[in-house]
Structures are given as structure tokens and as C-alpha cells.
């Protein structure tokens, strides 16, 4: 066994993969292999013809010419191997993205050599959907023109994914055919990363806001009611008959020369619950399911922007989740993670979930349900308890439901990429 391979296996055996020493060893002694390019094959074909002619005709000048042609081939082989020696590459992905929205994938190359620069580094990144077909995998090529000694260079490409899901980036391949492109040296980058692609966001139309206003559960439906107690201090006002003496603010009363009492603010929240009923049978189309999921993701995104108090969110499908917390970025990301992978089911338990919300101690005045079916297909819908206010049912299979949201393009899971661009910078 070669001694360099023995060192690498020794570092893996003692689980020093995360240590700097192990990364240094794997970077120096990583396996590099070479392939002859199409230009190199043409070059060798001409060289073979010259060698054959020199042997048959016994022409010394052709023998000398063949020797001169072999020299650049081996020179290219050695230099291309040197370009990938002691160079470390890392990929940087965003935490999560939305389908149909371009994002940037950045690669950084660090050259640990002190004298020799790396030229014309090509990175071929592989991208595929987990659980998808292998034919849907895509490959993106990116070029780093130069990585100076002891410095780093970065390159990026813009990517657009058309459908939601969990996508896997890697393993990638770094290669170089510098300087004349006859031989290309390659090394495999085993780093594999996953990216969550949330559903596509659309635009809520006036029909949605009109429905919210009619149901009196608008996104900003927080009214204040002034009282004499409870909650936080609001203002001072003149004393009235029936006010408690404990509310008198004696210092301000002495300054103003009249009796003043403290007034407190009592908030009346008109929160609402939002539930996704992702039901499907044999006649339910994929486009209808994606429309309902995009509808839910768009409303949740609006809630995260405008509402900071606790909100009840329910998602029902092949997996279910009901949360009640403030719409922070962390809570929104948890919801988007589930929406990225959820699939429809023929048994969602929507009536049971709505009854649990009605009997919960949460301050839910109304509930909005985004569903792929009308209420006529919901078993025991007439037995739904309405103790917590009305239930507004939005059926995206109907024309009125589809008019509440506008999508740039129909959400589809067939196409992965629609645009790829690359650029590189040195630092």
C-alpha cells in the first residue's frame, strides 16, 4: 500500500475527519486522475501517424518531430496535475429558497501553495431531486480562471428550480486542462449538501383581501379597547365617578391641580387560524395540489411580514402539523420545510382538526381553510363545532378559489432548471 494512501486511511480510522490535520492530508493526497480530451485524441492520432511513417520510411526527421510532439503532451499532463494539488474547494448554499425564484450557488477555491498558481479550474456540479428520477439530474459547469498562490478565488452560478422538494448538490468534480488542453486532470469533491426548495410564491388578488375583510379576520385586525385596568399603561385622564382610588396618580394630580387617574390599555385580538387541507383522489391533478400548496405558502409569507403575534397554522396531508406560535423567521422556515415535501392524502382528518381548534384555549375568532375539494366531499362537515367562530372554506378547484392567487407560471415538478449563468471573481 502506498504510504500516502496509508496516511489518509489512518486519519479516517481514528475519526479525525473534522480535524485540520485530516483535511490537510486529504487535500494533499486526494486521488487525482487524468483523461485525454478530444483535442488530445486528435493530437495523439497525428503523432501515431508520424511515428508510423518514420518507422516505415526510416526518416530521421519524422522521428525527431515525433519526439518534439511527445514533449508537450507529457508537459500538459504534469502541469494539469499540479493545478489541483493542495487546492481546497467549498460550496455555499442559501438556507432555503422558493421555487421559481433564482438563487446563487457560490464556490470558493483556496490555494495553499506559496509559489504556483492554479489556472483554468473547471467545477462540474451535479444537482438532483431526492426521490426523483435520475434523468432529471442536471450538471452545471463553472470556470475559475485563476487562483493565486496563498489566496482564494470564488465563482458562482445562478440557478432556478421550478418545483418544490429537497434537492441534493454534489458530488462535484474539479478539473483542469491547463495549459494546452490535451490532458484534463480531475479530482472528485465528495461534499454533498441538501437544499430545501419551498413552494412557489404568488400574488394574492383583491378577491382574497375582499374575503378577509368580509370575514372580519384581516391581516391587521388588531383593535384596541380602552379600559380602566389590565395590560399596560396607556394615558392619564380626569377622574370620573366610579373610578377606584388606587388608580389615582397623586404626583400628577398635585401638579395639575385636578384629580387624574391612570388609564390602561386592554387589547382585543381577533386572530384567525389557517389550515391547509391537502386532499386528493384519483381525479385530483398535480397542478391543483401545487396550487393549494403555493396558496398556503404565499399566505404564510404575508403573515410573517405583517403579523408578529401568535397564529395557529395547520397543515394536513400525508404528514400533519399544527403549531401555535409567533410568526418569526424560524417558525416560517419550519412551515416551509413541511410544505416543500408534503404530499396529498385521501384521509386528512380536517373535521377532527377543526374541532380541536374550536375547543382549544387559543384566541381564534375564525378559521380559514385552503382545500383541494369542496365542502360537499368532506365527511361529517355538518357536525363541525363552530364555537370559535365561522369557518371560511376556500376551494382552489373552483373558479372563485383560483382567482384569489396569481402565479407567474404553473407550478410543476417535471422541470428542474430553466436558467443557468456563471461568473467568477478572484480575491
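^ C-alpha cells above, recovered residues below v
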Amino acid at each position: 500500500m502506498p504510504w500516502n494512501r496509508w496516511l489518509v486511511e489512518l486519519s479516517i480510522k481514528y475519526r479525525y475527519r473534522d480535524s485540520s490535520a485530516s483535511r490537510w492530508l486529504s487535500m494533499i493526497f486526494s486521488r487525482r486522475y487524468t483523461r485525454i480530451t478530444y483535442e488530445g485524441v486528435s493530437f495523439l492520432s497525428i503523432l501515431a501517424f508520424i511515428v508510423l511513417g518514420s518507422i516505415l520510411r526510416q526518416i530521421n526527421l519524422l522521428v525527431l518531430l515525433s519526439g518534439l510532439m511527445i514533449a508537450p503532451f507529457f508537459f500538459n499532463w504534469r502541469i494539469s496535475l499540479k493545478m489541483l494539488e493542495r487546492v481546497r474547494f467549498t460550496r455555499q448554499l442559501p438556507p432555503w429558497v422558493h421555487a421559481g425564484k433564482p438563487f446563487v450557488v457560490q464556490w470558493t477555491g483556496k490555494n495553499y501553495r506559496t509559489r504556483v498558481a492554479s489556472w483554468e479550474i473547471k467545477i462540474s456540479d451535479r444537482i438532483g431531486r431526492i426521490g426523483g428520477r435520475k434523468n432529471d439530474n442536471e450538471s452545471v459547469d463553472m470556470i475559475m480562471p485563476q487562483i493565486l498562490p496563498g489566496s482564494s478565488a470564488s465563482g458562482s452560478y445562478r440557478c432556478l428550480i421550478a418545483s418544490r422538494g429537497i434537492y441534493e448538490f454534489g458530488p462535484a468534480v474539479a478539473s483542469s486542462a491547463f495549459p494546452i488542453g490535451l490532458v484534463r486532470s480531475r479530482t472528485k469533491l465528495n461534499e454533498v449538501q441538501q437544499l430545501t426548495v419551498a413552494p412557489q410564491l404568488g400574488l394574492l388578488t383583491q378577491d382574497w383581501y375582499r374575503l378577509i375583510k368580509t370575514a372580519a379576520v384581516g391581516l391587521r385586525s388588531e383593535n384596541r379597547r380602552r379600559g380602566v385596568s389590565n395590560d399596560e399603561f396607556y394615558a392619564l385622564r380626569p377622574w370620573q365617578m366610579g373610578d377606584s382610588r388606587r388608580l389615582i396618580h397623586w404626583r400628577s394630580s398635585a401638579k395639575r391641580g385636578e384629580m387624574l387617574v391612570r388609564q390602561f390599555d386592554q387589547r382585543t385580538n381577533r386572530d384567525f387560524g389557517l389550515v391547509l387541507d391537502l386532499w386528493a383522489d384519483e381525479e385530483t391533478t398535480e397542478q391543483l395540489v401545487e396550487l393549494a400548496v403555493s396558496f398556503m405558502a404565499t399566505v404564510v409569507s404575508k403573515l410573517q411580514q405583517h403579523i408578529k403575534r401568535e397564529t395557529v397554522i395547520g397543515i394536513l396531508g400525508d404528514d400533519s402539523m399544527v403549531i401555535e406560535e409567533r410568526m418569526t423567521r424560524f417558525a416560517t422556515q419550519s412551515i416551509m420545510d413541511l410544505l416543500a415535501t408534503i404530499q396529498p392524502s385521501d384521509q386528512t382528518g380536517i373535521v377532527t382538526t377543526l374541532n380541536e381548534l374550536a375547543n382549544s384555549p387559543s384566541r381564534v375568532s375564525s378559521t380559514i381553510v385552503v382545500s383541494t375539494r369542496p365542502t360537499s366531499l368532506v365527511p361529517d362537515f355538518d357536525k363541525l363545532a363552530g364555537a370559535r367562530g365561522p369557518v371560511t372554506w376556500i376551494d382552489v378547484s373552483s373558479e372563485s378559489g383560483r382567482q384569489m392567487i396569481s402565479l407567474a407560471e404553473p407550478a410543476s415538478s417535471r422541470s428542474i432548471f430553466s436558467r443557468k449563468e456563471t461568473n467568477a471573481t478572484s480575491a
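The first strand starts at residue 32 and ends at 36.
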